[in-house]
Amino acid sequence: TLKASDLLVSLYESQKKPDSALRYLRISLVLKDSLFSREKVIAQQNLLYNKQEKEKELEASRLKFKSQTQFYLLSSVVLALLIIAFILFRANQQKQISYVRLQHQKDQIDLHKTIAEDSLNDLKSTQAQLIQSEKMASLGELTAGIAHEIQNPLNFVNNFSEVNTELIEELEEEINKGNIDEVKAIAIDIKENEQKINHHGKRADAIVRGMLQHSRASSGHKEATDINALADEYLRLTFHGLRAKDKSFNAVFLTNFDRSIEKINVVPQDIGRVLLNLFTNAFYAVAEKKKNPYPLKGQQEYEPTVSVSTKGVKPPSGGLGVLIIVKDNGNGIPQKVMDKIFQPFFTTKPTGHGTGLGLSLSYDIIKAHGGEIKVETKEGEGAEFIIQLPVV
Questions:
Q1: DSSP one-letter string for 255-281
Q2: Which of 45, 137, 174, 324 has its CA 20 to 30 A from that of 225?
Q3: pTM for this one?
Q4: For 334, left (φ over 0), alpha (ψ -120 to 50), or beta?
Q5: Residue 235, exposed/middle/buried by CB under 10 A (0-12, 13-18, 19+)?
């Protein structure tokens, strides 16, 4: 119809009939409007339908995605729970295994502890025997030294006693003669001799008391002690003890005491043992060096010398202190063993000449007194042991 209207419009225009052409043109336009409006509606309907279909597809996809997400989430939770359950199961197994192992280790530790305690008790017993052995050896040296040292004051006591006996006889004669002035002079002499007898008797008593203190177990009680007298006494006793064992042994021993030092509180038996150890080592060192009969070229003939000196000091930590310095001119201590000399059972002496406990015990004794002991040495020239004790 639309095409027929368009043909008629063309025909009437060619025939110069405008009225007819216009009429059919209007019919054509109305037909076109009608036709195109319907297509638009159909197109719109199609668009709407397509839109609804897409929305349905999107909703279906969303629901599917939501369902998959929930499934995956639930699966993840279930998997996580399974993993946790597995981990807990394994942890419990490992705990049981660890418990069994720990129990076994505990049993082993208890066994080794028992063995170690038994070994420690045996070691303590052996150490006590060695300490007693060394103590008795040093006591033997002291005994020989005491026998020599005590002889001097006893000789004085005996001599002055004999002189006093003679003076008393003279005194009786002068009394009978009535010579008062001579009686007074003799009486003064007798009094002076009695004072000398008393002095040397006390010295002998002090030597014997020192020996008894050394021979018995330490009381552990500190006493006000004249450190100068203690050092001098043990130096002489050590020297004479070594001389009694070896008549060929000889050495010079020197003292240089600070007389301003007052008595200090120490355990005299313990400090005496420290000094005895140091003096014995010093005399041993110079005796060993003396055995070399060929002094180095340019050196004077070797003279074995051991010295002890004391000095009052003020330690950096405050208070007052006393230094006791024992020095020898022996061969010194090799640097390679300096870190070991205070260790138990370490000794540079040949087998049978020392237990290796002397310096170790000395170190413990000085530490127990709140002091310090250190050594300075130069190989070939000698060693110097320095003890610092607090004045308390």
A1: EE--TT---EEE-HHHHHHHHHHHHHH
A2: 137
A3: 0.53
A4: beta
A5: buried
Tell me the pLDDT of the chain averaged across its residues.
78
Count of CB atoms situated within 10 Å of the CB of 230: 20
pLDDT at 50: 78
pLDDT at 139: 55
Instruction: Report the distance separating Cα 171 and Cα 167, nearest Å.
Output: 6
CA–CA separation, 348 and 358 (whole Å): 12
Structure tokens at 195: 């004072």
CA distance 344 to 355: 9
Measure CA 97 to chain center. Answer: 38
In the chain, count of helices (H) and strands (E)? Answer: 6, 7
Selection from 276, 262, 28, 21 nearest residue 136 by Cα: 276
Beta bridge partners of 313: 321
What pLDDT digit, counting tens, does each position of 236-253 carry? 888 887 877 777 888 888
Contact 342, 363 (CB under 8 A): yes
Q: What share of the chain is helix, strand, coil (3-state, %, to 5)?
A: 70, 10, 20
Beta-bridged to residue 322, according to DSSP, are 312, 389
Cα separation, 108 vs 106, in Å, equals 5
* 192 C-beta neighbours (distance < 10 Å), count: 12
**Residue 110 burial by Cβ neighbours in a 10 Å radius (0-12, 13-18, 19+):** exposed
Q: What are phi and psi of 319, to 5 degrees?
A: 80, -160
User: Which has the closest alpha carbon to 27: 6, 48, 54, 49?
Assistant: 6
